[in-house]
Amino acid sequence: RGLGLLYESEKVGIATADELNRQKEQLLRTEQRLDDINSTLRNSEKHIQGIKSVFGSIRNYFSGRGSAAPPSGAGSSGGSGSSIPPSQSAPQFSQDTLHQNAEYQNHHPGLRNKPAFSNQPVDVDSALDKNLDDMASGLARLKGLAQGLNTELNDHNDLLDRVNVKTEDVKYKVDRQNKDMNKILGKK
Predict the structure, then answer these.
(1) CA-to-CA separations, 126 to 1, 101, 109, 123, 130, in angstroms, rounded
(2) Closest CA to 149 of 98, 97, 109, 89
(3) Which residues of 121-131 are buried (b: 16+ CB within 10 A; e: fewer)?
(4) Which residues lie closer than 8 Å to 73 by C-beta, 6 or more apart?
(5) Which residues, other chains included, contact 80 with Cβ-Cβ below 8 Å and sequence gap of 6+?
(6) Residue 90 CB contacts under 8 Å (≥ 6 apart), including other chains
(7) Residues 6 or more apart in contact with residue 48 via CB below 8 angstroms
(8) Considering only CA atoms, which of 157, 141, 106, 103 is closest in space to residue 13?
(9) Quick one: 182 exposed, middle or buried, by C-beta within 10 A (0-12, 13-18, 19+)?
(10) Which of 16, 93, 128, 138 is the most exposed place for a label (fewest CB within 10 A)?
């Protein structure tokens, strides 16, 4: 019964790790989109300054010479952590790792009704030792899985902090540009 609980815990941990990897990829895409939005907002700020005054147009003309918009892959504010591919940042877990383990196949609660398993004479002490060894190895795997999940969650927290800062920056720029455009259009 204890082994079955360990295997179920391991399955839940693997499913959690897979979900965290999927969410990390989404966060990385969101961070990239925020970088693209910031780049676009910088360009629109130049256009607004050009519309606001003649001197702004002249300044934009001279400051814009030779400088093109940065490529969409170039991050501007603190995106240094996003260069690590998700596959290298945390251990990858899959359902196949459990099924490749012969011990898992032999001791899985659903497979105990196999005729080869139930017909063997079993020494109680050796069976108990084997179960304890299986539980110890299962707990070691769970510990490694938990440490991997902890690392992944720490990476997520760092990524969420970066996304939050970039989102606040975008919000500030959009609000400021909307205020400037309303002023230019004569709205209050």
Answers:
(1) 17, 20, 19, 5, 6
(2) 89
(3) eeeeeeeeeee
(4) 32
(5) none
(6) 17, 20, 21, 24, 148, 151, 152, 155
(7) 177, 180, 181, 184
(8) 141
(9) exposed
(10) 128
Q: What predicted TM-score, i.e. pTM, was given to this entire model?
A: 0.57
Q: Which tokens go with 26?
A: 């989404």
Structure tokens at 10: 């391991």
Q: Which two tokens stand for residue 34?
A: 């925020």
Give the tens place of pLDDT for each residue, 36-93. 999 999 999 888 888 877 666 666 667 665 444 444 444 444 444 444 444 444 444 4
Residue-wise pLDDT tens digits, 115-165: 444 445 558 888 888 888 888 888 999 999 999 999 999 999 999 999 999
Which tokens is 27 given?
Answer: 């966060």
